[in-house]
Amino acid sequence: xxxxxxxxxxxxxxxxxxxxxxxxxxxxxxxxxxxxxxxxxxxxxxxxxxxxxxxxxxxxxxxxxxxxxxxxxxxxxxxxxxxxxxxxxxxxxxxxxxxxxxxxxxxxxxxxxxxxxxxxxxxxxxxxxxxxxxxxxxxxxxxxxxxxxxxxxxxxxxxxxxxxxxxxxxxxxxxxxxxxxxxxxxxxxxxxxxxxxxxxxxxxxxxxxxxxxxxxxxxxxxxxxxxxxxxxxxxxxxxxxxxxxxxxxxxxxxxx
Length: 256
Prior knowledge:
By secondary structure, this protein is α+β, with helices and mostly antiparallel strands. It has two domains: 3-51; 63-249, no CATH class. 35% of the residues lie in helices and 17% in strands. The strands form five sheets. It has a four-stranded mixed β-sheet with strand order 3-4-6-5. It has a three-stranded mixed β-sheet with strand order 9-11-10, covered by helices on one side. A hairpin with a 2-residue loop joins β1 and β2. It is elongated.
């Protein structure tokens, strides 16, 4: 048996995976140490490894595969999921990883893996032929990105990503919004998506449901929106330039 070629079948692996080929943990550790010394594998973090490609000399696992195997429930989320889906042309060197189990943030191969606490249990999938990637689906990615936009990528980047999408499943969107059960999240989501309702295929029923969870209090879209425009449909104060896109400016709602 050639352990290296066996491990090449796995984007990432642990000591437990190596131990499947041996009779005891000590032998597994010894085998790992030999492969590390020969620079045939590399350590990503504690008890997580990947092979080094003999062709490129680079790690076999990509950032999406690493994020998906940090722990049992980790998955690609937020802006990193937008990158995977191709809706963002800006590469972040922070990889956002959703999980219920907190892990210590770490860096590997030029990327920093950052923990995002996952508060709901649905909306994570494993695309076929992805090499084991676990990722929030498009609808949850949109909701999570709006929810965390000031913490992660900023309102302009989130809006630009959403503007690049086509068709969203409104039943899924409403399901995730109901699980988060946050008035301001309903408000922000309805406000942003209303500008792209046609390309996203969203019905008036979706927006009525969002509005039904909104109270009459005026909210500021972002922290720096205190002197912006006002959308009376969504009771949101916002800076008009937040909707400036890379190819120009979209037409603002008549309610402004």
